[in-house]
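Milestone M4 deliverable, item 7.
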Amino acid sequence: MAEDKIFEILKDNREISSLPQVLAEVVRVADDDASTASDIADIIMKDPALTARMLRISNSAYYGQGREVTTINQAVVTLGIRAVKAMALSSGIYGLFEISQPVVDRLRFWRHSLEVAIACREIAQACSYRPSEEAFIAGLMHDIGILVLESNFSDQFSRVWKLVESGESLVKLEEAAWGTNHSRVAKFLLTQWKLPSLLGDAISKHHEEFEVHEEIPANRLARIVALGNLISKFKVCQGPPLTTENLNRINHLSDSLGIGSTVLAEIQEKTLGMLIKESQFLEIKIGSVPDLLESANRLIYKQYLMVESTLKENRQMQSQLARDQMKKAALDSLKTITATLSHYINNASATILGRAQLVELALQKGRVKDDKGMAEQSMGTIVRAVETISLVLEELKKLSSFDITHYHDETSILDIEDNLKKQIEALEQTRTKELSESH
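Output delivered:
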């Protein structure tokens, strides 16, 4: 199915095609630079549940300012307009995709989404991206397209999700099934909700590869979301621990954002504690604290085993490389020795051949007496032997210029032997013919 057809179907779903009115107004006013705390407070007070939540959050130990906050106007001032927008969206969107029999485990989904949101906010602060609340919203919504596909294509999605849980690529399966993926679906949804295009663009790219030297300011938020997603401990579905490829992506993204490994490790270390606290005052269910700690410990242990296995493989590769280098050095030395010895043997053979030919010439002209023909026969044998040595030396010279890998090819060795035999036979035939002609 083509992507535009999918978007047409989604546009007709009025339950998700627009934000609830209060949330839409909160977003609109929060994005207006001329708005005041009173303006946004007036909108929040239209929703009693949102009003109560904002008061609880602003009075929590996490945001508490040392005095009790009793009005929404004070809450907005305490939290800040952008933080209010992020929290209103967090609470409002959480309840939009609740269905009776979900395929996607909602605890795992929101646990992952909130963890990525917190990580994105911390990464944004570390690399001086402003406003950091924007990164929080992008992180929270980065996988919302999964729930959109689930709620609109339940049967097909169920089949796809089973394959995902077995370890196959979600993005590849989505592309095959719908001609799009959850990242682009999320962008479409945010466009429908009239959220800033920068959010949708960033979310739509969080699975993409970024060029190492690419310096585009518009992609900073996308890189933040991609990095926050990669360092997340809790995934939406079961899967293997981080691969070497993903670890390389993490290093590349953190380097491109100017975040050192120490800072990134600190962000990862404190994310779990922040996840537990923020889920409580945002009233987003992500599981009990013991369950979270047990799951985190299990994931850390899996990651440890993966790192240990990788280190073992690296040691084996280094050992093999060292052996290969020693073999190469030995073969290089053998090539040098072969070339040197060939030079001396060739000179000696040339001298012997030259003398033998002089004796043969003397015999032919009668300058040397050989009544029984023994001298002539001996000279012929010497000449043939020296010529054979010369043929072997030529092959040795060729070997000394071969690539190292050629020595491991048994076929090549057999070819050399066959070639020598043929040349020696041809030499014998030529010699026999010359002797018969001379008599």
